[in-house]
Amino acid sequence: MRLLVVEDDVALGQILVRGLSEEGYAVDLSTGVVDARHNAQTHQYDSMVIDIGLPDGNGLDLCRSLRDEGDQTPILMLTARDGLSDKVGGLDAGADDYLTKPFDFPELTARVRALTRRPPQTHKTVLEAGELSLDPSSRRVWRGAIIVPLTAREFSLLEHIMRQPEATHTRTELLESVWDANYDGLSNVVDVHIANLRRKLEMPGSPPAIETVRGAGYRLHPDLIADTA
User: If both were cysteines, with which of 24, 36, 116, 124 could 6 make a disulfide (CB 3.0 to 4.6 Å apart)?
Assistant: First the structure.
């Protein structure tokens, strides 16, 4: 999953990026309204974390303008203020949740997880493809009755693929969705993680969970999709 953090405090922003990345998210950082709007228009995010006080505008106005333009990405507002009027203002602007600074990082990640599990309908409680199951809430994966331990990045990669089970996913798409804007599009990082996923998801007598579409990218094996239909 890919997140946008909008925070003008560079030190705090970098802490958030590092911590959320360790949780398996691809994270982009914007330090102001203009850059945030550019990122929001360029990329598709699963959630945004937006600070209210920004050097070139107001996070509430940014949230309101995104909603007016039809952007329904879940938004968590951050602010150093804890007055009721600020909370009401954030929710009235279209934010989905509100967190006051200072905060504990586990609470932030819990709220982000909750937001990314909300509608639209693509966010099912448990994703299934044949005997392969993935639970975004508990961050566990099974093939058959066996729990498959995955790294945070492997989990995010598999989740992205399973949310669009019939699609063929290009390396560029996977880089943009599962990693972040700083990764080199020519890197073989996707191929390495796909190879690791295939190995971990192997089941005797069953097809590989992910197959290569030559010249195009990767997709779930059609047999898994057929078993789900």
Answer: 36
Beta-carbon contacts of residue 87 (< 8 Å; ≥ 6 apart): 98
Q: Is the pTM of this model over 0.90?
A: no
**pLDDT tens-digit series, residues 19-35:** 999 888 989 999 999 99
- pLDDT, position 7: 95
What DSSP line would sit under 18-67, residue for residue? HHHHHTT-EEEEESSHHHHHHHHHHS--SEEEEESEETTEEHHHHHHHHH
- For the chain, the farthest-separated pair of C-alpha atoms sits apart, in whole angstroms, at 60
Given the structure tokens 């925070």, which residue do they identify?
7
Buried-state track 119-150, b at ≥16 Cβ within 10 A, e below 16: eeeebeeebbbbbbbbebeeeebbbeeeebeb
Which pair of structure tokens corresponds to residue 174?
């996977």
Distances in whole angstroms, Cα of residue 112 to Cα of each of 10, 99, 101, 204: 20, 11, 15, 37
- CA-nearest of 91, 92, 73 to 6 is 73
Q: Give the DSSP H or E segment for 8.
A: none
User: Closest Cα partner for 33 from 63, 12, 72, 10?
Assistant: 63
The pLDDT value given to residue 120? 47
- Indicate left, alpha or beta for 200 from its phi (over 0: left) and psi (-120 to 50: alpha): alpha
* H or E element at residue 144: none
Report yes or no: 4 and 31 within 8 Å, Cβ to Cβ.
Answer: no
